[in-house]
Specification:
There is one protein chain. By secondary structure, the chain is α/β, with parallel strands linked by helices. The chain contains 8 helices and 5 strands, in the order E-H-H-E-H-H-E-H-E-H-H-H-E. Strands 2-1-3-4-5 form a 5-stranded parallel β-sheet, sandwiched between helices. Strand 3, helix 5 and strand 4 form a beta-alpha-beta unit. The longest helix is centred in the C-terminal third of the chain and has 21 residues. It starts with 17 loop residues before the first strand and ends in a 7-residue tail after the last strand.
């Protein structure tokens, strides 16, 4: 659940429900790095949204993150080896960048590369290449309009990964103890 911390810094008439939207693969780093980051942000007074704690039971998984992204000042995307395997994370990434590109003065994006090389994200190599091969296998079994929808979605994901990897961020694989 989002914490109730310090007031968001004032900036024209823009009002944010959350200071930070945190996007990460729950199953991979949700109980390690992401939990520590979430706790540190909350302790520092930042109201932080993350999917695994802020969705109400029965709530549509796509509508709540979109609303939270639109109501946040900053999105932190934690890229890890399993990120490209998570359809939810890829969809969130597209939503984050669409929001950034439509109201850039009010929404900032910070990519964190956690035990992954930024070039793997940018160029979809390594574990990202493997994940996209699996997504493309799904494309092969789709038929009719579903195939076109899925193909367009995969292309949006790839473009979003490239765009996000080109943003200034933190490369934690080069840090001592990540």
């Amino acid at each position: 659940m989002a914490s109730k911390g310090a007031q968001a810094p004032s900036s024209s008439s823009y009002s944010a429900t959350y200071h930070v939207f945190l996007s990460f693969v729950v199953e991979e780093i949700g109980t390690t790095f992401a939990d520590h980051l979430y706790a540190a942000l909350n302790q520092a007074g930042f109201r932080t949204f993350r999917v695994d704690s802020d969705l109400e039971i029965g709530e549509n998984i796509n509508s709540q993150p979109l609303k939270a992204i639109q109501e946040s000042r900053i999105s932190i995307i934690v890229f890890s080896k399993g990120f490209a395997s998570s359809i939810r994370c890829l969809d969130e990434l597209v939503m984050i960048l669409q929001h950034k590109n439509t109201c850039s003065t009010h929404h900032h994006v910070l990519p964190i590369f956690y035990n992954i090389d930024p070039s793997d994200v940018r160029e979809q190599t390594g574990s990202f290449e493997y994940a996209f091969k699996r997504h493309e296998e799904r494309l092969e079994i789709e038929e009719g309009d579903g195939k076109h929808v899925w193909k367009a979605k995969v292309e949006r994901w790839k473009a979003a990964l490239t765009e996000a990897a080109d943003l200034a961020g933190l490369d934690l694989q080069k840090q001592v103890n990540g």
